Amino acid sequence: MTDVKALVGIMEQRGKSKRATAKALKINRTTLYRKLEGEGKSFTVGEVRELIDFLGLTRDEVYAIFLS
Description:
With about 70 residues, the chain is mainly alpha-helical. Helices cover about 70% and strands about 0% of the residues.
């Protein structure tokens, strides 16, 4: 399960808007909001990889957000 609070916190910390994040993931902004709210499907492996690159996530951040 994704730690959405941590993910959004890192997005804000790094100055990445939800709009820019959705664009980087090549998904609609509404789809991103649904994923963050737990109303839609989880992030795919490909989307997680894009988030890692886009946000410059460290290994520890990846574990904390996506694997805990």
